Amino acid sequence: MVKSIRFCCFAVLIFYHIGMLYVADWGFHYKSQYQSEFLQNLMLLVNRWRLPLLFFISGVASRYLLQKYSLIHFAKARTWRLLLPLLFGVLVIVPPLLYVEMTAKGDLNIGYWDFYRAFFDLDNSLFANYQSGILPHIDVNHLWYLRELWCFSLLLLVIHPFLTLLKVDKLLDYVGYRFGFGAIVFLPVICLSVAAIWLFPESDEGIRIARGFCFFLLGYLVWQRESWWQPILKYRRLYLSLSLISYVGLLCYYHLFWLTRTEPLVGVYAGLETFLFITNRWVWVLAILGYSYAYLNRPSSSLSYFAQAVYPSYLFHQSVLIVAAFLLTPLMLGAFVEGFWVIAITISFCLVSYELLKRINIIRPLVGISSEIPEAEYSLLNKMFRLIGWVLIVALGYLIIF
């Protein structure tokens, strides 16, 4: 079930980012000449819950790994699997995206290879207006999820012994069995709202990180907990109804207040806004979990295949779709034809690249595909590659933390 939900999450993510090309008034690295205000309504349908669900599933996966491996093995495995693809992405996958963005804004008028050589010059004046990142103008960009998931995994290692000592599992089982539906719906919403309002009241990035970790921790705590999964399954139709109601409420709020207000909300109104957003996120997560538990909780060869392709597809998709839209723009194809080709090119590139790269064992770890060779049977070249990889990702980890 976890793999199925993760695949669905990333499928939604790809289409969401394609939608960002065409939705009016929402900023993005590159925008198509064909933009629609109506598309905002469809984007709002998934805008609030797509990343919380992904962090929740990552928390579930982390709990599984921690029960299977030691803390040291978990830290080593997560670092290798998250930071090595992140490093490859920062140096190889993200630069084309930056090239398109700078060219479209009129800040660049050179070929890609000249740009790519300049990309590694940290003092180059070409990037004077693009200085935010782990290094000047070199940033994780759309791969920030890998950075934060790695940080969350390290933080989980720190608090994991305390969660065990404090008998949190028994407390959660008591709450689930005793209060059922009410606890599962309202307890996380209240905790998330308090975290957003009191811990990071004036920091959008702080709220995003706190929210991501809260959903990550929820997934870790709920894994294989029948006291929670049974109510999630039982009340899935009710969760879906609440999700649709909260979506209507979100649409009304967006069009009647969000678009017309000139100053940020404060006090009680800011708290109500936070409560609405978080409720929308959590009830959608519950609805998706409930229906997935009912209908996707069984083996599937097709889903297993696509689940393996998720990681490399996540790495490549945003740069591919933006480059595709950039190259298609001069053809003046119209919104629907251009959109169709952007979708077709993005999906085709992701699947073809997965099929090709999974056959090159030394490349597999760079794009998040597990190696088929046992570590004990590595050749000298593989061992040298791993040594270089560890040196580089330790340096990257240092940049991320400090």
Fold and architecture overview:
The protein has 402 residues and is mainly alpha-helical. The protein is 74% helix and 0% strand. The chain contains 15 helices and no strands. The chain has helices at 2-22, 39-47, 50-68, 71-104, 112-119, 144-165, 168-179, 181-199, 204-222, 226-234, 236-258, 267-295, 301-328, 335-357, 380-401. Helix 1 (2-22) runs parallel beside helix 13 and helix 8 (181-199) packs across helix 12 (267-295). The model has no long low-confidence stretch (mean pLDDT 88).
Short note summarizing the structure:
By secondary structure, the protein is mostly helical. It contains 15 helices and no strands.
Strand share of the residues?
under 5%
What number is the mean pLDDT?
88
The unreliable regions are: none
Helix content: over 70%
Distance between the termini: 36 Å
Compute the number of helices. 15
- Summing up helix and strand content along with how strands pair, one would put the structural category as mainly alpha
Characterize the biggest β-sheet. none
Number of strand segments: 0
Over the alpha carbons, how many angstroms does the gyration radius reach? 22 Å
The helix-strand sequence is HHHHHHHHHHHHHHH
Overall geometry:
globular
Annotation keywords:
about 0% strand, about 400 residues, mainly alpha, 15 helices
Which helices and strands, and how do they pair?
Blueprint: H1 2-22, H2 39-47, H3 50-68, H4 71-104, H5 112-119, H6 144-165, H7 168-179, H8 181-199, H9 204-222, H10 226-234, H11 236-258, H12 267-295, H13 301-328, H14 335-357, H15 380-401
Helix pairs in contact: 1-2, 1-3, 1-13, 1-14, 3-9, 4-6, 4-13, 4-15, 6-9, 7-10, 8-9, 8-12, 10-12, 11-12, 13-14
